[in-house]
Amino acid sequence: MKIKLALIIILFGISTHQAQDKITVAIGSKSTFIETYNKNSWSEDFTLDEAYRLGPTSVKTLKDGVKTSLKWIDLNNSHYKTFQKEICRFKTMEKELFKFHGYVDEFAKEMTMIFYGESDGSFKIEIKPYNSYSVFITFPDLERLKRFKDLLDGKSANNEIDDIFKK
Length: 167
Known about the structure:
It is built from 4 helices and 8 strands; from the N terminus they run ββββαβαβββαα. It has helices spanning 56-79, 95-101, 142-152, 159-166; strands at residues 3-10, 22-28, 32-39, 46-54, 83-94, 109-117, 123-129, 137-139.
């Protein structure tokens, strides 16, 4: 498979479940890969935590979910309600399984994006496996969610990277 564009963003966040130090999004012709990395406490290196492949339908669903989240953030800022709501569900496949087998529905994992609104106007958004307590990605603030949306839309976190791929 040929990857057209690789985008990297560093997200530093605090979460009660898990914090991702770095998220990468690689967009190919028929697949998008999202990987999370955590920084090693003993060095400056990052360790791959999780990596998933999303097909075109799942990417569209995730993009729509991010757009919905942005609207809900505005609503929560004006209404100040405590609530939890599932935004969307989409299928993913672990990257290594996909590389070995191609897409096999039995190996796919259903993920869910959940919005947690608080009465003070704050929020948290989690992407996690459906019916699981483990969390794949957490967005505790608007800026990180917007940067993730930009990556899904093909905009790089670094203009130098865009220049390399344009050549």
